[in-house]
């Protein structure tokens, strides 16, 4: 399997030159399991571990460690199908979310992707607000977002669902598909070019794995029927995995997520609500929050009925979350700096003590 089929391009040649000079070879991370990985080289699949030096350089920032989709420089272990990961090449794009719970840190779902497919089901679980959040995450990644309205065989009014999804998607492409019947799969397949890397994200039960199985032509990913009482599914993908399609293209499947906790969503939020951004230029105050200010063009549009109240409510809720996240990031950064200062202080004291003991 050539490097081009793995997603390699001319820009990578220049980036990898310093590593090539050291005798390392390029590989791509396919599976991540803590500090253990499966990587692909031009002609082999290997088990790999990261070096202690790489762990030290990351200094507790897990986002700097290899993730699925990353290009890495590896050193082969003689006479074994193993390798040591020496460095991570710069990422062109990355899908990131905030980790679940109270921790304020980034969780990278996939890197170096061209297109991110945002999968939602056209069944009773369809939720416009959740789709908007997925679009923010997709746009923030730097990749091209495409909305997949799956399970259209379970939809009584497809035109209405498509209209809702299209309004939320803005300028993003929306495709109606059905993994069960194969409807719309040719249009989906046409969105994946040879050498491209794509990722599928969505909540559990929307049919991501079934869509990937259809693209591949056989069952690669395990699937589980959703519960009839609430149309919700269980997690069938336990880790992010890279799959190579027979006709070219690389697919990254991600675990189903119960909630989409955003991370660093600024430009992505603007692009997801372009009509509100356009109206905001007519507000009296430049820092208008569009919630209670006088002469607010956005609130005027809501009152006039030209901007749906639901759309405005989603925007306000999202802005509140982003504001809260930024404050949490500042607090976390301050705490990390204090921790680094304490470590540096202890290291300095040890060096002084060591120096005095050898005088």
Summarize this structure as a short list of keywords or feature phrases.
3 domains; OB fold (Dihydrolipoamide Acetyltransferase, E2P); six-stranded mixed beta sheet; 359 residues; Rossmann fold; 11 helices; alpha/beta; single chain; Ribonucleotide Reductase Protein R1, domain 1; five-stranded mixed barrel; 37% helix
**Strand fraction:** 15-25%
Radius of gyration: 23 Å
CATH topology of the largest domain: Rossmann fold
Order of helices and strands: HHEEEHEEEEEHEHEHEHEEHHHH
Net shape: globular
Order of strands in the sheet with most strands: 10-9-8-11-13-12
Per DSSP, the total helix count is: 11
CATH superfamily of the largest domain: P-loop containing nucleotide triphosphate hydrolases
Derived from helix and strand composition plus strand pairing, the structural class reads alpha/beta
Biggest β-sheet description:
6 strands, mixed
Nutshell version of this structure?
With 359 residues, this protein is α/β, with parallel strands linked by helices. 37% of the residues lie in helices and 21% in strands. It has helices at residues 3-6, 10-21, 52-58, 128-140, 158-169, 185-189, 208-216, 267-272, 274-280, 297-304, 309-357, and strands at residues 25-33, 36-40, 45-50, 71-76, 82-88, 94-98, 106-111, 115-121, 144-150, 173-176, 197-201, 241-244, 250-253.
Describe what you observe in this structure.
With 359 residues, the protein is of the alpha/beta class. It has three domains: 3-88, OB fold (Dihydrolipoamide Acetyltransferase, E2P), CATH 2.40.50; 94-253, Rossmann fold; 273-359, Orthogonal Bundle (Ribonucleotide Reductase Protein R1, domain 1). The chain is 37% helix and 21% strand. It is built from eleven helices and 13 strands. The chain has a six-stranded mixed β-sheet with strand order 10-9-8-11-13-12, with helices on both faces. A hairpin with a 5-residue loop joins strand 12 and strand 13. Helix 4 runs parallel beside helix 5 (158-169). The longest helix is centred in the C-terminal third of the chain and has 49 residues, at 309-357. Mean pLDDT is 82; it is low at 223-239.
